Each structure stands twice: as structure tokens, then as C-alpha cells.
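pinging the channel bc i need a second pair of eyes. not urgent but kinda urgent?? the chain im working w is below, pasted from the shared doc
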Amino acid sequence: MNQELLQRLNEQIALEIHSAQIYLEMAAYFNDEGLDGMGNWMYYQHLEEMNHAMKIWHHLTERGERPQMLGIERPMNEFDGVMDVWAKALEHEKFITKQFDEMMKIAMDNQEYKSFTMLQWFVDEQVEEEDTFGGIVDQLNWSECSKPAVMQMNNSMAARTYSPMPDGLIPTGGEE
């Protein structure tokens, strides 16, 4: 495997674990604010991000590489209200998208087709992630974060479930 891509994939494992921690902090914030539905949604987002880390981990092991567990920084945990949390989550997903776009270029430039296929899955996933988070931010903006709108969103988010698969692959249906 191309060494630059291998390094970036190892870094991405750490970023996915870091993402999971960010969403767990956001879940704790929402729960502390009495928004258990949003807390539930973020808790399941944290599980999804851990599954993303494992998907990359499994890809490396299947390619005969040994994943390297890199250190991660402490996640953000200071928020200034509901909109701030969701805006920061959207900003973070855009950052993650940029990482996958850069890895796709490395894979293409180095004819790493096996990794390219796996990375394409993540590029598609990031389109979905940005659309989901962007839609939530748009709804909050449109409603001017009114208490009734926030409570309605909170109640609907309480229904989110997620079933991670042990091999790091994302199950079809029921994620959101």
C-alpha cells in the first residue's frame, strides 16, 4: 500500500474516534440541557463514527497492514446553545469530508484501487452526513430556534436507533 495513503488512513481512524468523542460530548450536553432526544441522536451518531473507524481498521488488516492507533486530542465540550452544537457538528463533518476528498486524490494518483473503492463509500457517506446535519441547522435557522420547534425536533430525534455490525460495515436501513 502507498505509504502516504497508509499514514492518512491511520490518521483517519483517529479522526473517526475523535468524531465519536465529539458526538458523545454533544450528547452529554443535550442530556444536561434536558434535550434527551437530541442526546439520543448524538449518542447513536457516536456509535456510527466508531463503526467508521472500524471499517477503515478492517480495510487495513484485510490489505495486510497493521493499523496504528494514534493519539487523539480532547474533544470540544463547550457549547453555547442548541444551534451552536449543530453548527459545530456540521462544521466538523465538512472537515471530515475534506479529509476523505484528499485521501481519494492520493488513492487515484497512486492507483490504489482497493482503497479507492473503500474511500468512495466514505465520500458517499459524507454527502449524507453533511445533508443531514445541514438540514438540522437549516430547520433551526428557519424556526429561529423557537422552543416549540426545538422540542418537536428533540422528540423526533428520540426515535433514532443504530445497529453497528461487528466487522465495521454499516448495516442497511434504520441508521437515522
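so Residues 170-176 have pLDDT under 50 and may be disordered. and The domain at 3-157 is CATH 1.20.1260.10 (Ferritin). — does that match what u expected or am i reading it wrong
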